[in-house]
Amino acid sequence: MSPDPAEAPETAQAAEAAEARETAAEPRTAPEAEQGRRLSPVRVLDVDPLLDDPGTRIVVCCGAGGVGKTTTAAALGLRAAERGRKVVVLTIDPAKRLAQSMGIDSLDNVPRRVKGTEGGGELHAMMLDMKRTFDEVVEAHADSERAAAILANPFYQSLSAGFAGTQEYMAMEKLGQLRAKDEWDLIVVDTPPSRSALDFLDAPKRLGSFLDGRLIRLLTAPAKLGGRAGMAFLNVGMSLMTGTLGKLLGGQLLKDVQTFVAAMDTTFGGFRTRADATYKLLQAPGTAFLVVAAPERDALREAAYFVERLAAEKMPLMGLVLNRVHGSGAGGLSAERALAAAENLEDPRIVDQRDGKAGLRNSPDTYGSSPPPASETAVAASEEGSPADEERSVDRLTAGLLRLHADRMQLLSREQRTRDRFTARHPEVAVVEVPALPGDVHDLAGLRDIGARLAAGRPEEP
Amino acid sequence: MSRLQVVSGKGGTGKTTVAAALALALATEGKRTLLVEVEGRQGIAQLFETEARPYEERKIAVAPGGGEVYALAIDPELALLDYLQMFYKLGGAGRALKKLGAIDFATTIAPGLRDVLLTGKACEAVRRKDRSGRFVYDYVVMDAPPTGRITRFLNVNDEVAGLAKIGPIHNQAQAVMRVLKSPETAVHLVTLLEEMPVQETADGISELRAARLPVGRVIVNMVRPEVLDAADLELVRTVKRSSVGQALSAAGLGGARGGGNAEKLVDPLLYQAAEYAERYALEQEQRAVLTELGLPLHELPLLAEGMDLAGLYELATELRKQGLS
């Protein structure tokens, strides 16, 4: 496979051009290209043992937005169910199509059985309704009169309808509830589409510590504090603060906050305790985190942050799911050679010279074009007897196929570099690559297919 | 042309990139634009290949023709302290508030306050004038939260206005809302030619319209080049394998007979073409859906070399060509 431009002196120019392109572009030889796609230095994540292990009770899928997190969660849930487990998938904000792909037109806050699964297990799916979840928490912990007062409080209504942190908190809350029920073998959770994936870990603590914290005590119990000795300083701080907040937000709001917090506090204090319990649940041995990403710079950067953060929090990371990875069945043909070949076909001068089957002679692979000597061309007649313009359109098409392939190879090497950058930073993380699909998932079969690809560990080549 | 240009889009569609390219495009010919980031990801710094930006407006790029792009990553905590300082001359007391968790409370938990601070800062930049009475920035481009949250984010002032019925936050919210609902503002949505982002774009537009927020344009990002056209794709389905093999061979890729190098390429190449055809059909469908939305539709090419600073200028030029600035 060694290029030998000297063989065809009349096309030295073309060969030179090809060589120039070769140097200008990323220098990659064919064997390198093939080797590059192997996950040699990286551990391959084996999904099935994880899903089959009865010890695995929770799988959390996290990662940046738009990387196929929810689809991955659904596909994993289906696969686990079809391998015999009783599974519930908790999604946060699934696209309509995804809900429909599980045969459920509208997911809601209650797990619904997904019909049409194969095998002995069961798949249930639900979508987090954060307001409903919050309401349930209130209703479960307060007597009906108090609950009504809280639910009617404007501060509560805003908070529960989804401001920063609530969604994350409620996702954790729901997860805790589902786990406590012990009705399912496995809970697969999709995380909220936060501005940063890290919010999922931070927000519950923040909300918990706020609702349980010093500020709230100051806001709700000024009398108590004032009565104590040595609290004069705090008292000053407090009046300064309530004063400022009052000015800033308007007195009514502050009063609403105070009544809201008081009601919350007396009915089911210990938000932090709940947050801590869920947090511990995530660190427990039955939990597995999967970081989901696409082979793009931003998504993988986010994934790297998340990997580091999970390690710092002692959360059990199982591996990285790399979605939408491209492959090629013709990985041995580099982008540069494909482009050079496409140019040969598109150059009418060369096409004119090619009346017959130039390629039939056993020519070695060359970079430059090497039209056959005239004598050879004259001998070979067209096998199919196709007219010249049909041949021309096949040439045009073939050139297109080659350009398409060149694009694919460039994409492949870019994805490769991006992934390598991640694995260099985190060689300890097991990776599973899921090939890109041309279209979206529409049904269980589509999810099943993704599940199979997830379990295969590496892209299938056609 | 609206002076506040809000750019939203589903996660993964490249809204930060489009916002940055738009800021560059609008800065051409001696204009000055401010690019604001509200989600604290420092995506702008990464795009412009500079270090993370502190909370201040800094020149980040020069546009062709002498224009300037400034950037600001709004930190809600600092914005609140800023605000308190401006209106109440708080000084050290601000730090005390921070210690007590009041700032954290206000910017994290308090309903919508965080969002008022973020949108408020952007609106302040839109209205800011210098001593001679001219606007400091010709345009302000906001890299806004994703489509799913954009209406709530922009409309949050309404909610705060309902909650805080009096007081400076109330007034601030009212003022901000007036800017956001006026023709001074345009909300653009970035999408890809894929089903889910297109669906989300359509939903986002209805939500924005229901909230009477001004919808601007739909920008399709990362549009793949058309390598094979409809005629080629027709031919892909009927062409003889052997003819493709012969053409490959003629192009210098080895033997066309069974087992030859060119012959071995035929199947994988045709397979890739079939994948392309499937995607092509899907993209055409999605393009039709987007056209139905009845908004100005723009397309930005997928950059073959990935996104970098040069690519950003390329996209800015493209946006100008398409009349976005």
TrEMBL record, chain A:
Q: Which Pfam families does the record cross-reference, listed alphabetically? A: ArsA_ATPase
What are the Basic and acidic residues biased-composition ranges? 18-37, 346-358
GO MF term set: ATP binding; ATP hydrolysis activity
Task: Cite the ArsA/GET3 Anion-transporting ATPase-like domain residue spans from the record.
Answer: 56-325
CDD domains given in the database record: ArsA
* InterPro entries noted in UniProt: ArsA/GET3_ATPase-like (IPR025723), ATPase_ArsA/GET3 (IPR016300), P-loop_NTPase (IPR027417)
Q: Where is the composition biased (Low complexity)?
A: 8-17
Segments for region (Disordered): 1-40, 346-393
Entry protein name: Anion-transporting ATPase
Q: What is the organism of origin for this protein?
A: Streptomyces capoamus
What phylogenetic lineage does the species belong to?
Bacteria, Bacillati, Actinomycetota, Actinomycetes, Kitasatosporales
